[in-house]
Amino acid sequence: MAPRRLDKRAKILRSATKVFARNGFYHSKVSEIAREAGVADGTIYLYFKNKEDILISIFEESMDEILRLTREEIGTHQDALSKLRRFVRLHMTLMEKNPRLAEVIQVELRQSSKFMKEYKNVKFLEYLQFIAEVIEQGQREGLIHKEVSPAIFKRMLFGALDELALQWVLSKKRYSLTSMADQVTDIFVNGIAVSTAANGVSATDGVVI
Amino acid sequence: MAPRRLDKRAKILRSATKVFARNGFYHSKVSEIAREAGVADGTIYLYFKNKEDILISIFEESMDEILRLTREEIGTHQDALSKLRRFVRLHMTLMEKNPRLAEVIQVELRQSSKFMKEYKNVKFLEYLQFIAEVIEQGQREGLIHKEVSPAIFKRMLFGALDELALQWVLSKKRYSLTSMADQVTDIFVNGIAVSTAANGVSATDGVVI
DNA sequence: TCCGCGTGAATGAATGGTCATTCATTGCAC
DNA sequence: GTGCAATGAATGACCATTCATTCACGCGGA
Questions:
Q1: How many CB atoms lie within 10 A of CB A174?
Q2: Closest Cα of chain B to A37: distance in Å?
Q3: For B66-100, how does the pLDDT look when each residue is reduced to its tens digit (9 = 90+)?
């Protein structure tokens, strides 16, 4: 009963994730989700209000889990730049380990601006805020330039990670996402420009991080 | 006749852009596009194969124009870092001046991975390639670190710009996008980290990747 | 100048197919 | 025997697309 209910709900969500990833939300049929989950069409409606509710549930529950993992993995006892590096690695790893989830997030996050406007996405905003707080910490620590706007930076970083993940998904995952993580972090932390100082890298120059 | 035909086609495209931006592709009705354009439903099918063909046409023709403007505006007589700064500004300005187009690009670019997989988006790839070439130029000039992968960087930059534009669109355009451009460029060029050399920023400190 | 004919653009009502959703019924667990 | 989850066939709403018909215009003949 109670456990059965939870099992079934979770099974439907897992099947829906698979089907949405395969066809995209609008081309997915409820009956296909039902078939995939091994339940009748009508059963879906015992657990979800409608098709869109399934999509939102997938997203919210995944974000819950991602947020939980992120907070757990990125402890409180590190400097901001180390946290940032860990964050980027973790994001890539999570996408890599849950490719179907990654696809759904790609689909849903951008599905339609109308949808995005109406559905206030609290969990996602929290995820972004996590980044902003790391930046603020870094500014207090004197590690990150005060001129950097945490609100702009959090969007930039997320956008960059998301676009890389999208490409990875579209390329049928032929390469490793996680292996790009450090390069991405390096660029955000140090920039792409060669130092403007005339005589290059001397022995006293620190390797950042 | 001939001119009338072109007028009508353009009018339908403009109306479709408006309608898609308002409702998202899947929630837009062909009849609404027709009404908006002041033509009959059937007329649409004299100019386009089907609804999806309208979307693809909007996108391709816009990308043509954007590419043209980008190549024109960003001449060949500059160093790579200046080009990059100009590119970012131009991208923001174009989005800001064509908010409805921006919305459609947001919708379409991510619509569904299935759609993206099937529709080889040559113009968009060219746009990304433009960024990669600027990076390669910078590496030849010695202005940009050799370790930076142009292929990764082009995605990062586009992702960052795109996410900022998406937010701007969703926020009902209450602030200026263009005014963020330089901050974005600064971060990509110089990074967010304060120099790590022990005694502050000296003239000889290099930022190392 | 005027008429009417041919052409092809434009129309929009009708069609048909596709699903999301419902709900009367079933059958299982206790 | 009762209650409740589960079923899946049936419903009906929705909309892209079609196509028989109308319309507008330019041309040539009188």
A1: 6
A2: 22
A3: 999 999 999 887 999 999 999 999 999 999 999 88
| The model's pTM | 0.88
Q: Tell me: the pLDDT tens digits for A35-50? A: 999 999 999 999 999 9
Residues 31-70 of B with CB under 7 A from strand C: 38-43, 45-46
Token reading at B98 = 């064509």
> How many angstroms separate the CA of residue B4 from the nearest CA in chain A?
33
The shortest CB-CB distance from B158 to any of A113, A148, A163 is to: A163
Q: Provide, as residue numbers in chain A, all residues whose Cβ is less than 8 Å from the Cβ of B189.
A: 191-193
Which uninterrupted H or E stretch holds B128?
Answer: helix B122-141
- Which whole number is the average pLDDT over B144-169? 95
Instruction: Say which residues have a Cβ less than 8 Å from residue A164's Cβ, sequence separation at least 6.
Output: A92, A177, A180, A184, B152, B155, B156, B159
A27 touches strand D (CB under 7 A): no
Share of chain B above pLDDT 70, in %: 84
Angle formed by the axes of helices B181-190 and B150-170, nearest 10°:
150
Quickly count: other Cβ atoms within 10 Å of residue A106's Cβ.
23
